[in-house]
Amino acid sequence: MDAAAQRDFFAFWREEAVCQREDPELFFPIGDTGPMLLQIDEAKAVCGRCPVRASCLAWAMRVQVGGIWGGTTEAERRLMRRPAVRLRHGEEPGAEAA
């Protein structure tokens, strides 16, 4: 997907996102320990009521952006990508990395 198509797709589902009514800083915690865990949980709760959560997550997986998107943290999305990377390299699902 080229940059223009990504912007159009982002604009389409973003209009319906519940997070539009929230403070944007909620979705960009500085760290993932201590008080930031409460912020992450609060952001994920907003995502949990969002009708476009799946589209948001798909966009974040494709663009690899930081912050809370589609109810996931950047670290969680990174873990979600790992099986796909292994499959592209011809490894069996569940195989141990060498």
UniProtKB/TrEMBL annotation:
The keyword Chloroplast does not apply. Residues 18-79 form the 4Fe-4S Wbl-type domain. Binds 1 [4Fe-4S] cluster per subunit. Following nitrosylation of the [4Fe-4S] cluster binds 1 [4Fe-8(NO)] cluster per subunit. GO terms for molecular function: 4 iron, 4 sulfur cluster binding; dinitrosyl-iron complex binding; DNA binding; metal ion binding; protein-disulfide reductase [NAD(P)H] activity. Its cofactor is [4Fe-4S] cluster. It holds the Pfam family Whib. GO terms for cellular component: cytoplasm. Upon Fe-S cluster removal intramolecular disulfide bonds are formed. The Fe-S cluster can be nitrosylated by nitric oxide (NO). It is found in: Cytoplasm. It comes from the Bacteria. InterPro entries: 4FE4S_WBL (IPR034768), Whib (IPR003482). Keywords: 4Fe-4S, Cytoplasm, Disulfide bond, DNA-binding, Iron, Iron-sulfur, Metal-binding, Transcription, Transcription regulation. [4Fe-4S] cluster binds at C19, C47, C50, C56. GO terms for biological process: cell redox homeostasis; negative regulation of DNA-templated transcription. Belongs to the WhiB family. PANTHER family: TRANSCRIPTIONAL REGULATOR WHIB1, TRANSCRIPTIONAL REGULATOR WHID-RELATED. Acts as a transcriptional regulator. Probably redox-responsive. The apo- but not holo-form probably binds DNA. This is Transcriptional regulator WhiB. The lineage of its organism: Bacteria, Bacillati, Actinomycetota, Actinomycetes, Kitasatosporales.
